[in-house]
Amino acid sequence: TPTDKSKEAMTRGVEMLVSAYSHLNSAEMAGCTPPDCAKELAANVRSEAHTAAARTAASSAVVLLKNDGDLLPLTATADSSRTLAVSGPAAFAGGSEASEDYYSGVNEGHIPRKGYTTPSEAITSKAISLGYKVTNDIKGADVCIVIGGAASHEEHWMLDGESLTAIDAAAATCPKTVVLLQINGAVLTPWKGKVTSIMSMFHAGEETGNAWALTLF
Questions:
Q1: Where on the phi/psi map is residue 69: left (φ > 0), alpha (ψ -120 to 50), or beta?
Q2: What is the pLDDT of residue 155?
Q3: For this UniProt entry, which residues form the secretion signal (predicted)?
Q4: Which domain holds residue 24?
Q5: Which of 4, 23, 37, 126 is the most buried (most CB within 10 A)?
Q6: Which has the closest alpha carbon to 101: 198, 208, 203, 200?
């Protein structure tokens, strides 16, 4: 028999579901009977408020795991020759409509979408505004930002091979290397002693790139 406390919890759950549905612009769904709702379900109902909430959630999910010499956050520079290199597979990857990606994982967690602002785009824009020269070439860079992770559950406990290769290359070349992780769970970091700073977030959705730009600087 449900207790008063469990009834209260169920009532609250229903209220949250109804509230979420009402925010999906239910007027556009009027007359739609599943499964004949392809047009309605594909409709873009985002607003500036939705984007701001997603950005706040993603940036709040970033965890600083290592920061030797208090390198982070990076600050503005008056030296126009100071170079920031951006590398790693997740830096340039967009979202996927068909398979796993670095933004929302795979299977039941995957949200099919393209057109994300990539971490490289967001970080480059912010870095240039603060006086940095930005490149994709790690050779000669003052600071290397490597963005990697694991898109697939098959790589549980490990970053994918491209990410590991990018980290090793930057650590062997750059005087200061920052690793940004987009992962779907806990991962091993046997390379942590080679790098200066590490930040991590679990798959954080469409505002991942902008969240990195907000927390890196």
A1: left
A2: 59
A3: none
A4: 4-30
A5: 126
A6: 203
- Of 85, 150, 151, the C-alpha closest to 123 is 85
Vertex 127 angle, CA 124 and 131, to 5°: 135
- Identity of the amino acid at 13: G
- Residue 192 tokens read as 């942590």
* Consecutive 10-residue averages of pLDDT for the chain (217 residues): 75 79 59 72 81 95 97 94 96 79 71 81 98 96 96 75 97 98 92 98 93 98
Point out which residues pair with 148 in neighbouring strands. Answer: 181
* Geometric angle at alpha carbon 164, from 160 and 165, rounded to 5°: 115
Paired with 108 in beta bridges are: none
Residue 37 lies in a domain: no
Could you tell me the strand order of the sheet in which 197-202 lies? 63-67, 197-202, 177-183, 143-149, 83-87, 133-135
Q: In this structure, how many other beta carbons lie within 10 angstroms of the beta carbon of residue 159?
A: 25
> Can you tell me which residue has the tokens 């990410």?
163
| Contact between residue 118 and residue 93 where contact means Cβ atoms under 8 Å apart | yes
The pTM for the full model equals 0.80
